Predict the 3D structure of the following.
Amino acid sequence: MHRQIEEATFVIVVCTPGYFAKVNRQVEHNRGLGVKWEGAIITDALYGEGGRNVKFIPVVCAEADATSVPYFLRGATRYNISDEKSFLALYRQLTDQPRVTPQPLGVVRKLASDQPGPSSASTTRTVAAVPDGEPVLLFSKTAGIFVVPAREIVVTDTVKFELVPGDDEASVFLAQLPKAGHSELAVAYGSQAALCRVGSVTSVRRGGVESVTLTVRAIESDYGTMMEMTTTGHSAESIAEKRARRILLNETLASRFSSADSTANEMSNAMLEAMVRGLNVPLEIRESPIPDLYESLGANPTEFLRTARLVCVLYLRLSGTVERTTRLELSLTGQTLQVDFEGLRSKKYSNRDAHRIAFTGTLAL
């Protein structure tokens, strides 16, 4: 049951008086056990997403059953399948057929400024010369990870990469970015990482070698840091350090309470785990990405270390763990990864330095 719910795109919850009584435990202890268990799984899933619901859809068979929607789904849109209009709205959601499709945005007009122009120093663009090809990591949840060398990286209010795909798979991925609806693309290079919107993709072939110019604009976000919470014995900063150690060292949480402890203590464990994973962040951290990378790239240590470093820089940023990675050195000794990390959190107060997270450790691969 848990696996089916995890794998499903949508879960329809048919709300009847009988279902409501069972999910709220208003029946005998040994009745409605399946419904009670479903309710626990749904509640846990919503809790883990910080209350964000994009999967569970409550439906009723008659408007009189509207009061049968459980409390944990009352914030979601409810559909009455006995009403044709409501049923069609549900069908549109399930089949991704919105009633209104937005038209493409128009071209932005360049307007004259009423203020004196900026000095030449402030308009100088930052160019990273990479004659041998600096690795750039591109990550899409639907297509996966691609590491593509860049001849040049130009940073202004946007970032422009001149990429050399090198293989057909990366070339096809880049060519399909605008068409496949990948409006959001995670990008990492050097010690920089951000979730971006794709601006343009242009391909040119010279002497049989393809180069692709990709322009992206970073999506401004605090990546969940402004909504961070604390829990008993754990500050937001210490929770962020636990998240960093999970990303880089694959550390898990040791239960603070035994199975004989109260339900409240079990909830405290679950709360801490949810916060370590990250609340309202683009990338939730359940485990380290490094072991899976080693499984696929371990035969080529240079490729593995190059890719692992960029993936970790991306995970640290998009999980709201640090705002900037200031040091990340990875080295292999046999099947053990040596990690030396330092990063700075978002600065929250003007009169206080940003919190620094730093540690060294090893990860057995």
Notes: The chain has ten helices and twelve strands. Residues 115-131 have pLDDT under 50 and may be disordered. The first strand starts at residue 11 and ends at 14. The longest helix spans residues 301-318.
